[in-house]
Amino acid sequence: MSDTSATEPLGERVFLVVVDDTPELHVALRYACRRAKRVGGRVALLNVMDPPEPQSWAAIGDLLREETRQQAEARLAAVGDEVASLLGRPPILHLREGGQREQLLKLLAEDATISVLVLAAGTGSEGPGPLVSSLAGKYAGGLRCALTIVPGGLSDAQIDAIS
After folding, report:
1. What predicted TM-score, i.e. pTM, was given to this entire model?
2. What confidence score (pLDDT) does residue 114 get?
3. In the CATH scheme, what architecture does the domain 16-162 have?
4. What is the C-alpha to C-alpha distance for residues 146 and 75, in angstroms, rounded to an integer?
């Protein structure tokens, strides 16, 4: 699965959700799908793989990279199936390698079709999460799209009521 972005008609809203292993993913995903459905838009998914640690044997590094890619593709496909179920159409898929925040900012700079970035805030004592904290703080003024932060503890019924 490669980094793909379909050419979107002008004016169609694309809601981007970052795929990760946090419990808040479901909240961001449901909110984005409901908003996209309401306005006739699309949902895009970004999954960022961590690069493998340097290995002394190139073959081991290649094997680790391929295994990581297969896991990331499987995760992206599973979340994509959920989007298709909620929205009624498949998502736009982006799979990248590197640091999550850096790759997200790079994608937002490159893909002018993305109009809204949807993140869900963490509910733990650690705060809203590093991505939400940095994008709502230091990087907020540099984003070229809207940023929607959804409370991560919302139920499906609560999400449905506000979207």
Report:
1. 0.88
2. 98
3. 3-Layer(aba) Sandwich (3.40)
4. 26
